[in-house]
Write a structure and sequence with these properties.
363 residues, Quinone Oxidoreductase, Chain A, domain 1, 2 domains, six-stranded parallel sheet, 11 helices, 26% helix, 27% strand, binds nicotinamide-adenine-dinucleotide, binds zinc ion
Protein backbone atom coordinates (compact mmCIF):
# COMPACT_ATOMS: atom_id res chain seq x y z
CA UNK A 1 0.00 0.00 0.00
CA UNK A 2 1.17 3.51 -0.78
CA UNK A 3 0.30 6.33 1.61
CA UNK A 4 -0.65 9.66 0.06
CA UNK A 5 0.34 12.53 2.38
CA UNK A 6 1.27 16.21 2.25
CA UNK A 7 4.92 17.21 2.56
CA UNK A 8 7.15 20.29 2.29
CA UNK A 9 9.36 20.02 -0.79
CA UNK A 10 12.27 22.13 -2.08
CA UNK A 11 12.04 21.65 -5.84
CA UNK A 12 14.84 23.89 -7.07
CA UNK A 13 17.80 25.80 -5.70
CA UNK A 14 16.71 28.95 -3.89
CA UNK A 15 13.02 28.58 -4.82
CA UNK A 16 10.45 28.90 -2.02
CA UNK A 17 9.39 25.54 -0.64
CA UNK A 18 5.97 24.19 -1.61
CA UNK A 19 3.44 21.81 -0.11
CA UNK A 20 3.19 18.73 -2.34
CA UNK A 21 1.49 15.38 -2.41
CA UNK A 22 4.05 12.79 -1.34
CA UNK A 23 3.71 9.05 -1.88
CA UNK A 24 5.16 6.98 0.98
CA UNK A 25 5.54 3.20 0.52
CA UNK A 26 4.77 0.68 3.23
CA UNK A 27 7.89 -0.29 5.17
CA UNK A 28 10.07 -3.02 3.75
CA UNK A 29 12.83 -4.95 5.55
CA UNK A 30 14.64 -2.78 8.09
CA UNK A 31 12.23 0.13 7.65
CA UNK A 32 9.59 1.91 9.73
CA UNK A 33 6.69 4.12 8.71
CA UNK A 34 6.22 6.99 11.17
CA UNK A 35 3.20 9.26 11.59
CA UNK A 36 4.96 12.57 12.29
CA UNK A 37 3.54 14.64 15.15
CA UNK A 38 6.05 17.52 15.25
CA UNK A 39 9.15 18.63 13.36
CA UNK A 40 11.43 21.60 14.05
CA UNK A 41 12.69 24.01 11.38
CA UNK A 42 16.51 23.91 11.29
CA UNK A 43 19.15 25.86 9.35
CA UNK A 44 20.11 22.65 7.62
CA UNK A 45 16.67 22.54 5.93
CA UNK A 46 17.35 26.02 4.58
CA UNK A 47 20.85 24.94 3.46
CA UNK A 48 19.23 22.10 1.48
CA UNK A 49 16.82 24.52 -0.18
CA UNK A 50 19.70 26.82 -1.10
CA UNK A 51 21.64 23.95 -2.69
CA UNK A 52 24.29 24.23 0.02
CA UNK A 53 24.31 20.51 0.86
CA UNK A 54 24.06 18.88 -2.57
CA UNK A 55 22.11 19.12 -5.82
CA UNK A 56 19.83 16.13 -5.34
CA UNK A 57 16.61 18.13 -5.77
CA UNK A 58 13.74 17.71 -5.06
CA UNK A 59 14.24 17.47 -1.30
CA UNK A 60 11.62 16.44 1.23
CA UNK A 61 12.64 18.72 4.10
CA UNK A 62 12.38 18.35 7.89
CA UNK A 63 14.47 16.22 10.23
CA UNK A 64 13.98 17.27 13.91
CA UNK A 65 10.96 15.14 14.54
CA UNK A 66 8.92 13.01 16.89
CA UNK A 67 5.98 10.80 16.02
CA UNK A 68 4.31 7.44 16.38
CA UNK A 69 5.39 4.29 14.56
CA UNK A 70 2.55 3.23 12.29
CA UNK A 71 4.03 0.11 10.68
CA UNK A 72 7.34 -1.72 10.52
CA UNK A 73 9.05 -4.02 8.02
CA UNK A 74 8.78 -7.81 8.48
CA UNK A 75 12.16 -8.23 10.21
CA UNK A 76 12.01 -5.18 12.52
CA UNK A 77 12.04 -5.87 16.25
CA UNK A 78 13.52 -2.67 17.72
CA UNK A 79 10.25 -0.72 17.49
CA UNK A 80 6.60 -1.71 17.10
CA UNK A 81 3.48 0.12 15.88
CA UNK A 82 2.25 2.56 18.52
CA UNK A 83 5.71 3.39 19.88
CA UNK A 84 6.37 7.09 20.46
CA UNK A 85 9.75 7.83 18.88
CA UNK A 86 12.24 10.60 18.25
CA UNK A 87 13.90 10.33 14.82
CA UNK A 88 17.66 10.57 14.37
CA UNK A 89 20.06 10.88 11.48
CA UNK A 90 22.60 8.47 12.86
CA UNK A 91 21.33 4.89 12.80
CA UNK A 92 24.58 3.19 13.71
CA UNK A 93 25.52 0.10 11.72
CA UNK A 94 27.28 -1.90 14.44
CA UNK A 95 29.76 -3.26 11.94
CA UNK A 96 32.04 -0.50 10.65
CA UNK A 97 35.48 0.10 12.10
CA UNK A 98 34.26 2.85 14.46
CA UNK A 99 31.39 0.68 15.75
CA UNK A 100 33.65 -2.35 16.20
CA UNK A 101 36.15 -0.28 18.18
CA UNK A 102 33.41 0.78 20.60
CA UNK A 103 33.01 4.31 19.24
CA UNK A 104 29.65 4.06 17.50
CA UNK A 105 29.04 7.81 17.77
CA UNK A 106 31.57 8.06 14.92
CA UNK A 107 29.76 5.36 12.85
CA UNK A 108 30.79 5.85 9.22
CA UNK A 109 28.05 3.68 7.71
CA UNK A 110 24.79 5.00 9.15
CA UNK A 111 21.73 3.91 7.22
CA UNK A 112 18.39 5.22 5.98
CA UNK A 113 15.28 3.70 4.39
CA UNK A 114 16.09 1.94 1.13
CA UNK A 115 12.74 2.54 -0.62
CA UNK A 116 12.10 6.00 -2.02
CA UNK A 117 9.32 8.40 -1.18
CA UNK A 118 8.14 10.15 -4.37
CA UNK A 119 6.10 13.01 -5.74
CA UNK A 120 2.73 12.10 -7.27
CA UNK A 121 4.37 11.79 -10.74
CA UNK A 122 6.87 9.23 -9.41
CA UNK A 123 9.87 11.60 -9.09
CA UNK A 124 12.05 10.27 -6.26
CA UNK A 125 12.50 12.63 -3.30
CA UNK A 126 15.74 13.10 -1.34
CA UNK A 127 14.75 13.25 2.35
CA UNK A 128 16.72 15.84 4.37
CA UNK A 129 19.33 14.01 6.47
CA UNK A 130 17.63 10.77 5.42
CA UNK A 131 14.46 11.71 7.34
CA UNK A 132 12.05 14.05 5.49
CA UNK A 133 9.64 14.76 8.34
CA UNK A 134 7.83 17.89 7.17
CA UNK A 135 5.23 15.36 6.06
CA UNK A 136 2.28 13.62 7.67
CA UNK A 137 4.11 10.32 7.36
CA UNK A 138 7.70 9.45 6.58
CA UNK A 139 9.66 6.29 5.86
CA UNK A 140 12.94 5.78 7.71
CA UNK A 141 15.31 2.99 8.72
CA UNK A 142 14.01 1.38 11.92
CA UNK A 143 17.32 2.30 13.58
CA UNK A 144 16.46 5.96 13.05
CA UNK A 145 13.58 5.59 15.54
CA UNK A 146 14.33 5.81 19.25
CA UNK A 147 11.47 4.95 21.59
CA UNK A 148 11.04 7.49 24.40
CA UNK A 149 8.51 8.15 27.18
CA UNK A 150 5.20 8.94 25.47
CA UNK A 151 4.23 11.51 28.12
CA UNK A 152 6.70 13.96 26.54
CA UNK A 153 5.51 16.79 24.27
CA UNK A 154 6.42 15.86 20.65
CA UNK A 155 7.26 19.44 19.63
CA UNK A 156 9.81 19.67 22.47
CA UNK A 157 11.48 16.26 22.34
CA UNK A 158 11.58 16.08 18.52
CA UNK A 159 14.22 18.81 18.74
CA UNK A 160 16.59 16.26 20.23
CA UNK A 161 16.75 14.88 16.69
CA UNK A 162 19.31 17.49 15.60
CA UNK A 163 20.36 20.96 16.78
CA UNK A 164 19.44 20.72 20.46
CA UNK A 165 21.18 17.34 20.76
CA UNK A 166 24.21 18.78 18.94
CA UNK A 167 24.49 21.56 21.55
CA UNK A 168 23.74 19.40 24.60
CA UNK A 169 26.21 16.76 23.42
CA UNK A 170 28.90 19.31 22.53
CA UNK A 171 28.91 20.23 26.22
CA UNK A 172 28.14 16.89 27.88
CA UNK A 173 29.98 14.44 25.62
CA UNK A 174 32.50 16.15 23.32
CA UNK A 175 33.52 18.83 25.82
CA UNK A 176 33.38 16.37 28.73
CA UNK A 177 32.41 19.24 31.02
CA UNK A 178 32.51 18.25 34.64
CA UNK A 179 31.72 19.64 38.09
CA UNK A 180 33.17 23.08 38.73
CA UNK A 181 34.28 23.78 35.14
CA UNK A 182 34.12 27.25 33.67
CA UNK A 183 32.58 27.29 30.20
CA UNK A 184 32.16 29.91 27.47
CA UNK A 185 29.59 29.34 24.72
CA UNK A 186 30.03 31.45 21.59
CA UNK A 187 26.76 31.88 19.70
CA UNK A 188 23.48 31.36 21.52
CA UNK A 189 21.06 30.18 18.87
CA UNK A 190 19.32 26.85 19.33
CA UNK A 191 22.62 24.98 19.36
CA UNK A 192 24.45 27.39 21.68
CA UNK A 193 21.55 27.63 24.14
CA UNK A 194 21.47 23.84 24.25
CA UNK A 195 25.21 23.89 24.96
CA UNK A 196 24.52 26.27 27.85
CA UNK A 197 21.85 23.91 29.19
CA UNK A 198 24.20 20.93 28.71
CA UNK A 199 27.01 22.70 30.54
CA UNK A 200 24.71 23.31 33.50
CA UNK A 201 23.50 19.70 33.49
CA UNK A 202 27.12 18.53 33.48
CA UNK A 203 27.93 20.57 36.57
CA UNK A 204 29.67 23.68 35.22
CA UNK A 205 30.12 26.33 37.89
CA UNK A 206 30.33 29.25 35.46
CA UNK A 207 28.69 29.42 32.04
CA UNK A 208 29.49 32.52 30.01
CA UNK A 209 27.22 33.15 27.02
CA UNK A 210 28.64 35.20 24.13
CA UNK A 211 26.49 36.57 21.30
CA UNK A 212 26.05 39.70 19.20
CA UNK A 213 22.32 39.72 19.85
CA UNK A 214 21.05 40.73 23.33
CA UNK A 215 17.83 38.75 22.70
CA UNK A 216 19.91 35.58 22.46
CA UNK A 217 21.83 36.45 25.61
CA UNK A 218 18.55 36.83 27.47
CA UNK A 219 17.52 33.36 26.29
CA UNK A 220 20.91 31.93 27.24
CA UNK A 221 20.38 33.29 30.75
CA UNK A 222 17.04 31.47 30.92
CA UNK A 223 18.88 28.26 30.02
CA UNK A 224 21.33 28.78 32.87
CA UNK A 225 24.12 31.11 31.69
CA UNK A 226 25.68 32.76 34.73
CA UNK A 227 27.29 35.65 32.79
CA UNK A 228 26.79 37.23 29.38
CA UNK A 229 29.16 38.96 26.98
CA UNK A 230 27.91 41.14 24.12
CA UNK A 231 30.36 40.16 21.38
CA UNK A 232 30.21 43.54 19.64
CA UNK A 233 31.18 45.53 22.74
CA UNK A 234 34.94 45.21 23.22
CA UNK A 235 37.01 42.05 23.07
CA UNK A 236 35.09 38.95 24.21
CA UNK A 237 38.36 37.16 25.01
CA UNK A 238 39.39 39.80 27.54
CA UNK A 239 35.92 39.78 29.08
CA UNK A 240 36.00 36.00 29.47
CA UNK A 241 39.44 36.21 31.09
CA UNK A 242 38.16 38.86 33.49
CA UNK A 243 35.19 36.65 34.39
CA UNK A 244 37.43 33.64 35.08
CA UNK A 245 39.98 35.13 37.45
CA UNK A 246 42.32 35.98 34.59
CA UNK A 247 42.67 32.36 33.45
CA UNK A 248 40.19 31.79 30.62
CA UNK A 249 37.51 29.11 30.47
CA UNK A 250 38.13 25.40 30.92
CA UNK A 251 35.90 24.66 27.93
CA UNK A 252 35.04 27.01 25.03
CA UNK A 253 32.30 25.99 22.62
CA UNK A 254 32.10 27.58 19.16
CA UNK A 255 28.44 27.40 18.06
CA UNK A 256 28.41 29.95 15.24
CA UNK A 257 30.49 28.57 12.36
CA UNK A 258 32.76 31.60 11.93
CA UNK A 259 36.56 31.82 11.72
CA UNK A 260 36.84 34.95 13.85
CA UNK A 261 34.72 33.41 16.57
CA UNK A 262 36.72 30.17 16.36
CA UNK A 263 39.90 32.17 16.98
CA UNK A 264 38.26 33.90 19.96
CA UNK A 265 37.16 30.56 21.37
CA UNK A 266 40.71 29.25 20.91
CA UNK A 267 42.19 32.24 22.74
CA UNK A 268 39.60 32.42 25.54
CA UNK A 269 40.62 29.00 26.93
CA UNK A 270 42.65 28.52 30.06
CA UNK A 271 45.96 26.70 29.52
CA UNK A 272 45.24 23.07 28.60
CA UNK A 273 41.57 23.94 28.11
CA UNK A 274 39.25 22.34 25.58
CA UNK A 275 37.88 23.97 22.42
CA UNK A 276 34.75 22.33 21.01
CA UNK A 277 33.80 23.22 17.46
CA UNK A 278 30.10 22.60 16.82
CA UNK A 279 29.33 25.47 14.40
CA UNK A 280 29.72 24.27 10.81
CA UNK A 281 32.20 26.34 8.76
CA UNK A 282 31.87 26.97 5.03
CA UNK A 283 34.69 25.58 2.84
CA UNK A 284 36.29 29.02 2.39
CA UNK A 285 36.82 29.75 6.11
CA UNK A 286 40.43 29.63 7.29
CA UNK A 287 42.39 30.05 10.49
CA UNK A 288 46.02 31.09 10.41
CA UNK A 289 48.12 31.12 13.56
CA UNK A 290 51.70 30.55 14.69
CA UNK A 291 52.17 26.89 15.59
CA UNK A 292 53.77 27.90 18.86
CA UNK A 293 50.39 29.28 20.02
CA UNK A 294 48.84 25.94 19.31
CA UNK A 295 51.56 24.13 21.22
CA UNK A 296 51.90 26.70 23.96
CA UNK A 297 48.21 26.74 24.77
CA UNK A 298 47.98 22.95 25.05
CA UNK A 299 44.69 21.22 25.65
CA UNK A 300 42.27 19.72 23.19
CA UNK A 301 40.58 20.85 19.98
CA UNK A 302 37.50 18.73 19.32
CA UNK A 303 34.99 19.06 16.48
CA UNK A 304 31.61 17.75 17.59
CA UNK A 305 29.37 15.85 15.16
CA UNK A 306 25.80 15.60 16.41
CA UNK A 307 27.17 16.12 19.92
CA UNK A 308 28.89 12.71 19.80
CA UNK A 309 25.50 11.37 20.81
CA UNK A 310 24.17 7.85 20.67
CA UNK A 311 20.42 8.24 20.15
CA UNK A 312 19.53 4.89 21.74
CA UNK A 313 21.55 5.78 24.84
CA UNK A 314 20.88 9.51 25.07
CA UNK A 315 17.37 10.31 23.81
CA UNK A 316 15.52 8.30 26.50
CA UNK A 317 17.84 9.71 29.20
CA UNK A 318 17.35 13.32 28.05
CA UNK A 319 13.58 12.85 27.74
CA UNK A 320 13.55 11.57 31.32
CA UNK A 321 15.50 14.65 32.47
CA UNK A 322 12.97 16.79 30.56
CA UNK A 323 10.03 15.07 32.30
CA UNK A 324 11.73 15.59 35.67
CA UNK A 325 11.95 19.33 34.95
CA UNK A 326 15.76 19.32 34.78
CA UNK A 327 16.07 20.05 31.05
CA UNK A 328 13.77 22.75 29.68
CA UNK A 329 13.19 21.54 26.12
CA UNK A 330 9.90 23.48 25.94
CA UNK A 331 11.84 26.74 26.00
CA UNK A 332 13.41 25.93 22.62
CA UNK A 333 9.96 25.95 21.02
CA UNK A 334 9.53 29.60 20.06
CA UNK A 335 6.32 28.94 18.11
CA UNK A 336 4.29 26.13 16.62
CA UNK A 337 3.27 26.41 12.98
CA UNK A 338 1.27 24.42 10.40
CA UNK A 339 2.91 22.45 7.58
CA UNK A 340 2.42 25.32 5.13
CA UNK A 341 4.25 27.76 7.44
CA UNK A 342 7.81 26.54 6.78
CA UNK A 343 8.80 29.15 4.19
CA UNK A 344 7.77 32.00 6.52
CA UNK A 345 9.57 30.27 9.40
CA UNK A 346 12.79 30.26 7.35
CA UNK A 347 12.59 34.06 7.19
CA UNK A 348 12.00 34.41 10.93
CA UNK A 349 14.99 32.11 11.51
CA UNK A 350 17.15 34.26 9.22
CA UNK A 351 16.11 37.39 11.13
CA UNK A 352 17.15 35.70 14.39
CA UNK A 353 13.63 35.95 15.83
CA UNK A 354 13.27 32.33 16.94
CA UNK A 355 15.21 29.50 18.50
CA UNK A 356 12.96 26.97 16.82
CA UNK A 357 9.71 27.13 14.90
CA UNK A 358 8.10 23.71 15.14
CA UNK A 359 5.62 22.27 12.66
CA UNK A 360 2.81 20.46 14.44
CA UNK A 361 0.84 17.84 12.49
CA UNK A 362 -2.23 15.73 12.81
CA UNK A 363 -3.71 17.06 16.03
N1 LIG B 1 28.05 19.93 14.61
C1 LIG B 1 26.78 19.55 14.47
O1 LIG B 1 26.47 18.36 14.53
C2 LIG B 1 25.73 20.60 14.23
C3 LIG B 1 24.36 20.25 14.28
C4 LIG B 1 23.42 21.26 14.08
C5 LIG B 1 23.84 22.55 13.81
N2 LIG B 1 25.17 22.85 13.77
C6 LIG B 1 25.69 24.20 13.49
O2 LIG B 1 25.70 24.97 14.68
C7 LIG B 1 25.70 26.36 14.34
C8 LIG B 1 24.65 27.10 15.13
O3 LIG B 1 23.35 26.65 14.77
P1 LIG B 1 22.04 27.42 15.32
O4 LIG B 1 20.86 26.68 14.81
O5 LIG B 1 22.16 27.67 16.77
O6 LIG B 1 22.20 28.79 14.51
P2 LIG B 1 21.68 30.26 14.89
O7 LIG B 1 21.87 31.07 13.66
O8 LIG B 1 20.32 30.16 15.49
O9 LIG B 1 22.68 30.76 16.02
C9 LIG B 1 23.90 31.36 15.77
C10 LIG B 1 24.08 32.46 16.81
O10 LIG B 1 25.40 33.00 16.65
C11 LIG B 1 25.32 34.39 16.88
N3 LIG B 1 26.49 35.03 16.29
C12 LIG B 1 26.70 35.35 14.99
N4 LIG B 1 27.90 35.95 14.84
C13 LIG B 1 28.48 35.99 16.07
C14 LIG B 1 29.70 36.49 16.57
N5 LIG B 1 30.60 37.07 15.77
N6 LIG B 1 29.95 36.35 17.89
C15 LIG B 1 29.06 35.78 18.73
N7 LIG B 1 27.86 35.30 18.31
C16 LIG B 1 27.57 35.40 16.99
C17 LIG B 1 24.00 34.79 16.28
O11 LIG B 1 23.55 36.04 16.81
C18 LIG B 1 23.11 33.62 16.67
O12 LIG B 1 22.44 33.83 17.90
C19 LIG B 1 25.50 26.41 12.83
O13 LIG B 1 26.77 26.55 12.20
C20 LIG B 1 24.92 25.04 12.52
O14 LIG B 1 25.15 24.65 11.18
C21 LIG B 1 26.12 21.89 13.98
ZN1 LIG C 1 29.09 1.76 12.20
ZN1 LIG D 1 18.99 20.16 12.10
Amino acid sequence: MVHEVRGVVAKAKGAPVTLETVLVPDPGPGEALVAVQACGVCHTDLHYREGGINDDFPFLLGHEAAGVVEAVGPDVTSVTPGDFVVLNWRAVCGECRACRRGRPWYCFATHNATQKMTLADGTALSPALGIGAFAEKTLVAAGQCTKVDSRARPEAVGLLGCGVMAGLGAAMFTGEITNGDSVAVFGCGGVGCAAVAGARLAGAAKVIAVDLDPRKLELATQFGATDVVVASEGDPVEKIRALTGGFGADVCIEAVGNAKVMQQAFDARDLAGTLVQVGVPTPDMRIDMPMIEFFGHGGRLKPSWYGDCLPARDFPMLVDLYLQGRLDLDRFVSETIPLDGVEEAFHRMERGEVLRSVVVLGR
